[in-house]
Design brief:
With about 280 residues, the protein is an alpha/beta fold. About 45% of the residues are buried. Helix 3 packs across helix 11.
């Protein structure tokens, strides 16, 4: 079955690819975490994913009303920290279209990320020493090609050339194959991202190969391909020529809001070790 998904976990499941240059291990505390390492380009081509490391964090709901919301956020933050350089400026980029709710995860998330790159220049020495001590972070809402007339990768590349970050965190909405993963799963990886690839609207790649610095992609599935979902539910082939569409949950507004809140809180904690969960959540 040719499934349409951005999740490496679903790719290796559909191809039964473990043990052929692809290693998958499981762990986790509040999340069920699947740690997938694709060791070669050849292994990656078999499942349609670039070489790299992919973490899939699964739970019942990314809800701020969950009894373990704090623990989930802290665990996500710890896992993200392992991908980041120890020091230096980081650019956090929100990909997607803020006017289309299923595609608004990136813009909604970065609107809550603490931008600090300017503080050392703006604050007088001795004033607000805590703020001056925070890691320099830049934040960007890139928009989409139809809004800006520019590829997302062109915008981010130009910003990187000017600000010289040590890494980029790119947040984007994803597509999945399993309905149960809509709004309940976080994927992060160090292989970069091709915005829109899950809905067959592939744009220029954002990766260490194209930008020259590490690109950590973070995303949550917000849409599923109807044919893929139907095949998974019924186990039957979809008749050729049947109309297809991308489907999103009816409570997508709530899912985006909760996912953006958790991811932004976790990013703030990962970038600024001085911040507690209470500090980050209050932002």
């Amino acid at each position: 079955m040719n499934i349409r998904t951005d999740l490496a976990l679903e790719r290796i499941g559909s191809e039964n690819a473990q043990g052929k240059g692809i290693i998958s291990t499981e762990r986790g505390e509040t999340f069920h975490i699947t740690d997938i390492r694709i060791d070669s380009d050849e292994a990656g081509r078999r499942i349609g994913k670039p070489k790299g490391r992919y973490l899939t964090l699964e739970t019942k709901a990314l809800s701020r009303f969950s009894d373990c919301y704090r623990e989930m956020t802290e665990e996500f933050s710890r896992e993200l920290s392992a991908f980041l350089p120890e020091s230096g400026c980081v650019l956090v980029a929100g990909l997607g279209n803020s006017a289309i709710t299923p595609d608004a995860l990136g813009p909604r998330t970065v609107s809550k990320v603490l931008a600090t790159r300017h503080l050392k220049q703006e604050l007088v020495e001795g004033e607000a020493d805590f703020l001056r001590s925070l890691r320099p972070v830049s934040v960007l809402q890139s928009g989409v090609l139809g809004q800006t007339g520019m590829e997302t990768a062109e915008i981010i590349s130009a910003v990187c050339a000017k600000t010289n970050p040590k890494a980029v965190i790119a947040i984007d909405a994803l597509a999945c194959a399993e309905l149960s993963r809509l709004g309940t799963t976080i994927q992060m990886c160090d292989s970069g991202i091709s915005p829109g690839s899950g809905v067959e609207n592939k744009r220029m790649e954002l990766s260490e190969k194209t930008l020259g610095i590490p690109v950590i992609a973070v995303g949550v599935p917000t849409v599923v391909d109807l044919h893929t979902a139907a095949k998974g539910i019924t186990g039957q082939e979809i008749p050729s020529g049947s109309p297809n569409m991308m489907v999103t949950p009816r409570d997508i507004d709530r899912l985006i809001d909760h996912a953006a809140g958790m991811i932004s809180c976790g990013i703030n904690m990962a970038l600024h070790s001085e911040l507690t969960f209470a500090d980050a959540e209050s932002l």
